[in-house]
Amino acid sequence: MSKIYLLESDVSNYSSFLQTNLNIDESIQSKAMGSKWESFKNSAEIKLWLRNNDYGKKNYQFDISSSMSPFFIISQLAFDKLSDILEPRGVFFQVNTESKRKKFLGYYPTNSLSECFDKEKSVYCEYPKGLVIDETVLIEKNITDEYLFSIEEDISRVFVTEKFKQRVEEAELLGFDFSNEVRTS
Question: CA–CA separation, 63 vs 103, rounded Å?
Answer without folding.
Answer: 10
